[in-house]
Amino acid sequence: MIRLLQGGSVLALLACAATVTAAGPTPAELKEVRDKAIAYLAKHQARDGSFSARFAGPGVTALVVTALLRNGVSPDDPVVKKALEALEKSVKKDGGIYDKGLANYTTSVAVMGFVEANRDGRYDTLIKNATKFLRKLQYGENTKEDDVKFGGAGYDDKTRPDLSNTQYMVDALIAAGVPKNDPAIQRALKFISRCQNLPGETNDQPFAKKTTDDDRGGLTYTPIDPDDSKHKTPDGGLRSLGAMTYGGLKSFLYAGVAKTDPRVQGAIRWIRRHYTLEENPGMGKAGLFYYYHTFGKAMEALGEDSFEDSKGNKHDWRKDLFEALKSRQQDDGGFINKGDRTFGEGDANLATAFALLSLSYCNPAK
């Protein structure tokens, strides 16, 4: 066949072949780590079907459900079925899915779990009511647009809004089929833009004008001055953080912001400078598995198999993410981030749920 190709055609064929490589781990590699994590979770389910309910209400149970379903476990599997039944017990008359607190967070992650399990429409009403509840928690129609809280969401309707809770709300609404031009999504976009260290038309907050070159383009936890000084720069700006920047990037893309938009480009440039899977930039090891999950979702949303850092190194991000997870898997198949009190990943069920969710984005590119 090569005899039929002349001159440059052969070179073009070889060049093309050199660039067409499978991204990510092999299916066999992925299966080994995934199956061990699934088996770990199956062994640590409470009798009532929940996971770590005393720690975070229905939140961890919802994350486990979503993780199992995204990794090929059937909704009819006994572990998933019992976990879904446990989640349904936390559904309130107002549509929220929570126990004593963390209403936005637990409802958002529960919505994503029920959406994954909703193969025959059995959860349509539940999901619809839950999305209505989430809308009520947003600082929206009753908040002036020039208020920094506008569009954001906190743990409930009385707490300060932050990017973590807001991006979870956006994830849930998008998963439930809410269109990207919906007012709730666009209001959230306003708040998320105000979390970015990018002074200009989309961020009118004073801290953005005090950003350093290193922080520029990244996103911070909340645009409302935090009480602690660890999130502040010496000049009074707010530090950019790894998980928040990836969370902001995917939220921009989910909301329909173009890849050429300065907000998306700014976040990408920050990520190029801080590309790593050894830590959660700005937070060290705290929230490492939360970071991995957000990293995976953002990279999938960006839609590129290879990511080039600021030094010109090209990364097979799926492979990088997989190797980081594999190296941290315990002998019993679970994952744990010992000593992490900020994100609670000292709870092995939570860390394993995040790890398994992250693995779902490591599937080899087609």
Walk me through what this model shows.
- The chain is globular.
- 47% of the residues lie in helices and 2% in strands.
- A two-stranded antiparallel ribbon has the order 1-2.
- 47% of the residues are buried.
- The chain has 14 helices and 2 strands; from the N terminus they run ααααααααααααββαα.
- It has a single domain, classed as Alpha/alpha barrel (Glycosyltransferase).
- With 366 residues, it is mostly helical.
Number of domains: 1
Q: Helical segment tally?
A: 14
* Beta-strand percent range: under 5%
Specify the helix fraction band: 40-55%
Provide the succession of SSEs.
HHHHHHHHHHHHEEHH
Briefly note the CATH topology name. Glycosyltransferase
Give the N-terminus to C-terminus distance in angstroms: 26 Å
Radius of gyration based on Cα positions: 21 Å
CATH architecture: Alpha/alpha barrel
Biggest sheet character: 2 strands, antiparallel
Specify the CATH class.
Mainly Alpha
Number of strands: 2
Arrangement of strands in the largest sheet: 1-2
Structural shape: globular
Backbone structural class: mainly alpha
Average pLDDT rating: 91
Instruction: State the low-pLDDT regions, or none.
Output: 1-20
Summarize the structure.
This protein has helices at 8-19, 27-43, 53-56, 59-70, 78-88, 103-117, 124-137, 163-175, 183-193, 242-254, 262-273, 288-302, 317-328, 348-359; strands spanning 306-308, 314-316. With 366 residues, it is an all-alpha fold.
